[in-house]
Structure formats: C-alpha cells, structure tokens
Design brief:
It is built from 7 helices and 4 strands; from the N terminus they run αααααβαββαβ. By secondary structure, the chain is of the alpha+beta class. It has a 4-stranded antiparallel β-sheet with strand order 2-3-1-4. Helix 1 packs antiparallel against helix 2 and helix 4 packs antiparallel against helix 5. It is elongated, with a radius of gyration of 28 Å. The N and C termini lie far apart (79 Å).
Length: 231
C-alpha cells in the first residue's frame, strides 16, 4: 500500500511539473507574440494620438488572457465564475482610432490560442495577420482619392451672411458644407466651420488668401488631422 501511495505521489508531482511547464510556455509565447503585435502597432500607427500605455496594454492583455484560459481549462464552473467577476469591470476610456480596438482583439486572440495550448496556430495566426497589416500599411489601402478637411473661418460679427463666401468656395472646392457657427472673442467675432474637399490641383494657400481678402484678413485655418471623421 505504501508503494502505491508513493507511486501516486510521484505521478502527481510529474503531472504538476508538466502543467507548470505548459503554463510557462503559454505565458512566455503569448508575451513574445503580443510584443511583436505591439511593435507592429508602433510602426504602423498613423493617427494623431500615440499612447505608450496603450502599447503596453496590448502586451498585458494578451498575457492576462492566456493565464485566464489556462485557469479555466475544461472547468465550466470556473468559466462562469470568471465571467461574473469580469462583468463588474467598466472601461471608461474611449478609443480614438477604430484600429486600436482591432489591435486589442489581436493581442487577446493570440493570448487565447496560447492559453489553450494551440502554439502553432497562435504563431501562424500572428505572423499571417502581421503580414496583412504591413500590406495594408504599405499600400495605404482604403485611402480616399482626396481627403476632406475642416475649414475654420473667422468673420466680423456684422458680417453675418455666410453665403458671402460661397462664390470663393465654389471656385476652389468640389465639396463644402457648413457644419457649425459659433461666437468668438467675447461675441465680436463669428467662427464658421466647413467640411471641404479641394478641386484637383487647388493649393490650400490660394484658397486661404482668397478667403482672407473676403473676411478682412482675419484668421483662416484648415485642419489636416487624418484621425478625425467628418460627416
């Protein structure tokens, strides 16, 4: 009987060591893969806002998810318990770029596959998607032929007819639409905001010079931020 218990204890020890090694392999591989994903994000990021915390979050989320999948295993009760625990978490920060959400899911997917022990699938998935991301980045896929921009035009308070500028805008733009009117400089000025799209070959400086002649040489600004979406 004593030999039986000794053999059973040795089997438990071996099983524990194997489980620990598998868990370490999953965590380490998820760290390497999410590190590669974070580097790709940093290289291909083109938005106006870059956050070091977000880059580190991609790595942390991937590793955490892999650990969660290791803990869950085939235990349904643990899975439901974790779902209940994580349901109380609320994330208050909004994503400024939709592509950021895709990178979060990318890192989580790599962590899940590592946690489930599909190491080859995790590597193939990560390498393939990184190749796709670099292809989209190199070809600038999806970019519009001409970007729409935001024109901010300052006019005197007594020049309240925004139609005054329509002839200039029609001459230089293929598209323009007035989006907002607001007061500035304690009500002595009015700011008009347009969404605009230049005609082919039209230089922004020429448009700005023409508008300055019409608004009394007050401020004219064109915003080029590619992360903003104008409707």
């Amino acid at each position: 009987m004593t030999n039986f218990f000794n053999d059973l204890q040795q089997l438990v020890d071996v099983t524990s060591r194997v489980t620990i090694l598998e868990a370490f392999a999953a965590i380490f591989l998820s760290f390497l893969l999410t590190l590669a994903i974070a580097v790709v994000y940093r290289i291909t990021h083109t938005g106006a806002r870059y956050s070091q915390s977000f880059v580190q979050t991609i790595i942390i989320m991937g590793v955490v998810v892999s650990v969660i999948m290791i803990v869950i295993g085939n235990n349904i009760a643990v899975a439901f318990g974790l779902v209940g625990a994580f349901s109380i978490i609320r994330f208050r920060s909004a994503m400024s770029d939709p592509k950021d959400i895709a990178f979060i899911f990318f890192g989580m997917a790599a962590g899940i596959t590592c946690g489930l022990g599909f190491y080859i699938v995790a590597i193939l998935f990560t390498v393939t998607l990184i190749g796709i991301i670099f292809f989209l980045y190199a070809t600038n896929f999806g970019k519009a032929a001409q970007l729409r921009k935001r024109l901010t035009l300052t006019v005197p308070e007594n020049l309240h007819d925004e139609a005054v500028f329509n002839s200039i805008l029609n001459e230089h733009l293929t598209f323009f639409a007035l989006r907002s009117i607001e007061t500035a400089n304690q009500g002595t000025m009015i700011q008009l905001q347009y969404v605009i799209q230049n005609k082919p070959g039209v230089n922004d400086k020429i448009l700005m010079d023409e508008l300055r002649k019409a608004n009394g040489n007050l401020k004219v600004a064109i915003n080029y931020l590619s992360t903003e979406v104008y409707y």
